[in-house]
Write a structure and sequence with these properties.
CATH architecture of the largest domain: 3-Layer(aba) Sandwich
Shape: elongated
Strand order of the largest sheet: 9-8-7-12-10-13-11
Number of strands: 13
Helix content: 25-40%
Oligomer: single chain
CATH superfamily of the largest domain: SPOUT methyltransferase, trefoil knot domain
Structural class: alpha/beta
Strand content: 25-35%
Number of helices: 7
Largest sheet: 7 strands, parallel
CATH topology of the largest domain: Alpha/beta knot
CATH class of the largest domain: Alpha Beta
Distance between the termini: 34 Å
Radius of gyration: 20 Å
């Protein structure tokens, strides 16, 4: 069973009370019965188990039984060229469940202008999809999601000020002439940045800009991957290399 994400304003000591739409959400998306036990996650807070004490019209009351620390996020920023709306949802989900600290959607040369106007990129929708992902993975730490509608200002004003000499940046591609993940080892890394372009790839200017900033151009293989597949593969590679002390 998925966890139920709670918010600090819903909690008083060891009791959580959900009212109105929040109670409706909990009853709709979770199998709640009086006396049943459910995992909970306090948004940006602790995790634990709770007992459903009372269910009334437009109100659900839970007693919090235990408390433990959330699963730590990776010091990792995921940069993704804005994909189609359905893919946006999948990337937000993956970034959340795989512990990405920051997710930057940026406009690249091959980004369809309509993708930036998607309802999925509205803050309310982003928070909803993050909440659903946190419930699925039973964690409480959401990624910070930012939207950038211009490539050059993003690089010059945002990324260049955050990307430090001690950080490692990966510019992902399907070009087979580039080195693959296992051949690159970086000692004492502080932060990792992953840049994933559209299926058609970054253009020459964008590629050169990332490389000049200090990113390493890496291959994900010969096949052209969907954005969500490339995201999952890349994050999986990073997690594996960290466990092997190769990053």
């Amino acid at each position: 069973m998925n966890a139920l994400v709670l918010f600090s304003e819903e909690i008083d000591n060891d009791t959580a009370i959900l009212n109105g739409s929040r109670a409706e959400y909990a009853l709709t998306h979770h199998t709640l019965k009086v006396g049943s036990e459910i995992s909970y996650a306090i948004w940006e807070g602790t995790l634990g188990e709770a007992i459903v004490e009372e269910i009334k019209v437009n109100e659900v009351s839970l007693r919090l039984l235990s408390k433990r620390e959330p699963i730590a996020q990776q010091e990792l920023t995921l940069i993704v060229s804005v994909p189609r709306p359905q893919t946006q949802k999948k990337v937000i989900h993956l970034a959340t469940v795989l512990g990405v600290k920051e997710l930057h959607f940026i406009r690249s040369a091959y980004t369809e202008k309509s993708y930036l106007m998607s309802h999925t990129l509205k803050s309310e929708s982003i928070n909803y999809h993050i909440l659903r992902a946190l419930e699925q993975c039973k964690n409480s730490l959401p990624p910070k999601v930012e939207i950038f509608d211009r490539f050059k200002p993003y690089i010059e004003d945002t990324l260049s000020s955050r990307f430090l000499p001690s950080d490692t940046g990966f510019l992902l591609s399907t070009c087979t002439e580039m080195q693959s993940f296992p051949t690159l080892k970086h000692q004492e890394n502080t932060n990792i940045y992953l840049a994933i372009g559209p299926e058609s790839g970054w253009n020459d200017f964008e590629t050169e800009t990332f490389i000049n900033l200090g990113f390493n151009e890496l291959s994900l293989g010969k096949q052209i991957l969907r954005v969500e597949t490339a995201t999952a593969v890349a994050l999986g590679q990073i997690s594996l290399l960290k466990k092997l002390d190769m990053l």
